[in-house]
Amino acid sequence: MLLLALDTATPAVTVALHDGERVLASDTQVDARRHGELLLPAVDKLLTGAGLALADVTGVVVGVGPGPYTGLRVGLMTADTFGFALGVPVHGVCTLDGLAYASDLGPDAGPFVVATDARRKEVYWGLYADSRTPLSGPAVDRPADLADRVAGLPAVGAGALLYPETFADARAPEHVSAAALASVAAERLAAGEELLPPRPLYLRRPDAQVPKNYKVVTPK
Amino acid sequence: MADHRDEPLVLGIETSCDETGVGIVHGTTLLADAVASSVDEHARFGGVVPEVASRAHLEAMVATIERALTDAGVKARDLDGIAVTAGPGLAGALLVGVTAAKAYAYALGKPLYGVNHLASHICVDQLEHGRLPEPTMALLVSGGHSSLLLSSDITSDVRPLGATIDDAAGEAFDKIARVLQLGFPGGPVIDRLAREGDPEAIAFPRGLTGPRDAAYDFSFSGLKTAVARWIEAKRAAGEEIPVRDVAASFQEAVVDVLTRKAVRACKDEGVDHLMIGGGVAANSRLRALAEERCERAGIRLRVPRPGLCTDNGAMVAALGAEMVARNRAASDWQLSADSSLPVTETHVPGDAHLHPHPHSHAHSHDHVHETAKDNLYS
Ligand SMILES: [Zn+2]
């Protein structure tokens, strides 16, 4: 088994190779505005560095968000196309599950929150029983509206670090890593669990804003 | 004549607006032209909503590639290259296509060609009428562009002679259709109604046709307003709107200016043929008037069939095949979408950001790249 994992749902452009037992290699670059440029060169470098080729990959793992749409689609479109070209399955994993997995909160730490930056003064968030068990979410909300539900709980992710008034006990990691995402997928596949379809979790409807050059020009 | 054994087999991907297009060509022969359109999803907004278009591209892409391969009856491994629209267009929509093309080219081990959408609109005519004469005069008219372009080599030299200074011609059609409550898009329905109307019923203004106006630039904003005003005045007076006459007279004003300027450009530059492309080139009156005026001026007219005038993947594949045939440098894996790629950048070769473009000249400008990137993630 050789899994290629990638995630572009947070400012990180992150890729990893996993053989079903362990992470073979991984790479993460943080640049919120250049997912499209950085992802494919990162995949190429990762494979070359490991002495492998894309044709060796037996499955693709992709973070399905939630995350800012433009960047999120880069990962999904890449995974989707790889899956098609190679004839291998594409497994979706919620990006927040990857962050939960990578948190250094041990299995006995009790419930905690994962929150990423959803922009527009909102966070994408989910509640976890432990690093492998989602309790609720993902959802998108204003931090202030969550205060009651997350009070006293540790929280990981850039969304938590961004709003300390809501998330008093905020911690690293800030962004998801494909290594963690691959590990989540490998464990779930080994346990015979169903993974998510490789479709983006947008959580919001598109803004039905007509572009400027189509605006109504009523005569004065 | 061209040696068919050596003609490149290229797959092209187009996502600059609301059509997910995948085409496959063999040199100048069209093998497949698969299109998935999200136009119905935009209709209620009266225009293309970028986020809706981007979502639709992602969903439709792989199935559309698959359909193109099946239609063409070719194996992906036999392709000589993957071409994709790198710009101009809607930033987020372009990025979906560029991402898919990069992943597909990488997975297949094929060269990647990021190409210019406008040059593709011109090059598509090779699939219909054979090799483009050099130089070629092209009039591109659609919802997004209205330009007069002169190209001596479609892979490396496209010179803008003129362009719209405000709205694109196709936008004017959409806007007038909206004022007349005919729905979106406006082009086809206005064309249909105009056939039953009198093009001389109302004298609408011809923008930028005065003696001191720029010879090759266009302006449709004033016309748009004049038509809307005329309609509103009738409505205010409680009179019935002669929809067919308004459609015919408005359409006549648009195509009169377009063809007049295009024919003049041909004469001024000594070019004896004219190519018309873009969605508005599907307009029957534009075709008829262009034919009439070209004939009178001794100019040969080349207009692809309507399906190849609107945005599609075949046009991108056609230009990609030309890039391969002329040994143009491939793009690299860092290729990004550029929503305001200048028309002079016919393609985006891999070392574009290290060296100046080998064919760039006074007309190229790259001032908009930073804003383009801001748009992309806003
Ligand atoms: Zn176009």
UniProtKB/TrEMBL annotation, chain A:
Can you name this protein? tRNA (Adenosine(37)-N6)-threonylcarbamoyltransferase complex dimerization subunit type 1 TsaB
Taxonomic superkingdom: Bacteria
What residues does the Gcp-like domain cover?
A: 32-147
| Pfam families per UniProt | TsaD
NCBIfam families attached to this UniProt entry: T6A_YeaZ (TIGR03725)
- Give the PANTHER family listed for this entry: TRNA N6-ADENOSINE THREONYLCARBAMOYLTRANSFERASE, TRNA THREONYLCARBAMOYLADENOSINE BIOSYNTHESIS PROTEIN TSAB
Q: Which GO terms describe its cellular component?
A: cytosol
- From which organism does this entry originate? Streptomyces albidoflavus
One GO molecular-function annotation for this sequence? transferase activity
- Entry keyword RNA-binding: no
The signal peptide annotation in the UniProt record is: none
One GO process term, biological-process aspect:
tRNA threonylcarbamoyladenosine modification
Sorted alphabetically, which keywords does the UniProt record give? Transferase
TrEMBL record, chain B:
The EC number(s) attached to this protein equal 2.3.1.234
Q: Which InterPro entries match?
A: ATPase_NBD, Gcp-like_dom, KAE1/TsaD, Peptidase_M22_CS, TsaD
Annotated residues that bind Fe cation are located at H117, H121, D311
Swiss-Prot/TrEMBL keywords: Acyltransferase, Cytoplasm, Iron, Metal-binding, Transferase, tRNA processing
GO MF terms held by the record: iron ion binding; tRNA N(6)-L-threonylcarbamoyladenine synthase activity
Region Disordered: start and end of each range?
Answer: 342-378
- Stretches of Basic and acidic residues bias are at 363-378
User: Per the record, what are the reactions this protein catalyses?
Assistant: L-threonylcarbamoyladenylate + adenosine(37) in tRNA = N(6)-L-threonylcarbamoyladenosine(37) in tRNA + AMP + H(+)
Determine if Metal-binding is one of this entry's keywords. Answer: yes
Pfam families reported in the protein's UniProt record: TsaD
**How does the cofactor bind to this protein, according to its record?**
Binds 1 Fe(2+) ion per subunit.
Q: Which family does it belong to?
A: Belongs to the KAE1 / TsaD family.
- Protein name in UniProt: tRNA N6-adenosine threonylcarbamoyltransferase
